[in-house]
Amino acid sequence: MHARSPPPPVVLGTSIATMGTRSVALVLVAAVLLQALLPASAAEGLVRIALKKRPIDENSRVAARLSGEEGARRLGLRGANSLGGGSGEGDIVALKNYMNAQYFGEIGIGTPPQKFTVIFDTGSSNLWVPSAKCYFSIACFFHSRYKSGQSSTYQKNGKPAAIQYGTGSIAGFFSEDSVTVGDLVVKDQEFIEATKEPGLTFMVAKFDGILGLGFQEISVGDAVPVWYKMVEQGLVSDPVFSFWFNRHSDEGEGGEIVFGGMDPSHYKGNHTYVPVSQKGYWQFEMGDVLIGGKTTGFCASGCSAIADSGTSLLAGPTAIITEINEKIGATGVVSQECKTVVSQYGQQILDLLLAETQPSKICSQVGLCTFDGKHGVSAGIKSVVDDEAGESNGLQSGPMCNACEMAVVWMQNQLAQNKTQDLILNYINQLCDKLPSPMGESSVDCGSLASMPEISFTIGGKKFALKPEQYILKVGEGAAAQCISGFTAMDIPPPRGPLWILGDVFMGAYHTVFDYGKMRVGFAKSA
Q1: Which of 97, 264, 273, 333 could disulfide-link to 522, CB 3.0 to 4.6 Å?
Q2: Each residue of 311-341: pLDDT tens digit?
Q3: Are 491 and 501 in contact (CB under 8 A)?
Q4: CATH number at residue 506
Q5: Which residues form the Peptidase A1 domain (predicted)?
Q6: Known catalytic residue: 121?
């Protein structure tokens, strides 16, 4: 047994130098302890905004359907899911339908802060909330309204503003005030006080307004976006923000937006980054789309895509969404135009493909489209590509031309799989029964998820797969539960399209980084 060492002698006298050394040591220890006690976000220089998740309910579905119909009538589009190729940057914003949105966060405007629930939307660039001066839109009275007279930091602007969405237009005027996002206070932020909100659909909306996180290029009134101001005012250490949606939570804590970087606990592995190909939206180039590991052929030579937190579903070209519908057993709508094309022109289209005719010229050769040098357009309608003014001219392919171009894509894909001509024509005829609902919502059997295929997207040379439980949305509970496909159709022709909009269905499965400093978007599997 060892004898204990005697305690060190207590030294009462200490030199000034020794005291200085100990003081420095104590300060260092205190700093380390403080760092350990601080929340991770403060220690890392990150600003976190908690997101609430609310389930899609029947009211939201009805509102989405009604607002989609409103948009269809207003924009003169087929089911509000086709865009006529205009080159105006706001075109895609005009198709946005927020009624099925599930993820919301809270901000404050003014001093003291007036609280608003907003959608943090990477697919638009303006901040707007209802105004106390909104007297004649019933929807305004169901939401928080900004009262400029109660803010000591309010600055009058007064410039008129209007934004056209698929859900209708909001109109009002610009004002300036401080905007509180988490612990950050963005000073002198320009935003829209909405004095008009569309129809009755916004009455059931679960949010007050929208905070856009897109680029200034698509900002109405050229207003500087909130995110730009955060960077300019030095409020974030790194010009990066990231989204994590908690898809495991049915309701309540729905995830986080992290401004100034990303949280490693939100993702697994490394991010795959792709450069922003066109500023405005967070747009990038995407490769082939696969159903159950097999190519659809439509994007094999490349498509554009947008990472859009303000879109709840995943939108893509009707030709591919129809193939997905067929494979997952989704209900669709019968297209007589499609059936007519198959019965009257199917064999001729097949013969032209087998003769190695350029696919983009086939529909013009059979007389259903005209060819403008790049792609087929409806006969008698000038292509937007030739529009020297660069403005939208209302180009919209006719239904027979659309059906023909889809048939060409489907037949190409089947020929690549060495299917016989009879099998191909029968399969294309079946697809004509599976076209997506004009309002973009297709029902599926909740009991069939196990037999549904994975749907994969090629980004940066890597396959990003979605499993059925990730792309099927459940509405309601128990015996009353209904399942809807997370895929919706939207056709945007060249030069901007074909285009995919990767909304919350995709961003829920893959943690998404928006790197403003390096102009790139990154994806990694969500934790």
Answers
A1: 273
A2: 888 999 888 888 888 888 887 766 778 888 9
A3: no
A4: 2.40.70.10
A5: 103-524
A6: yes
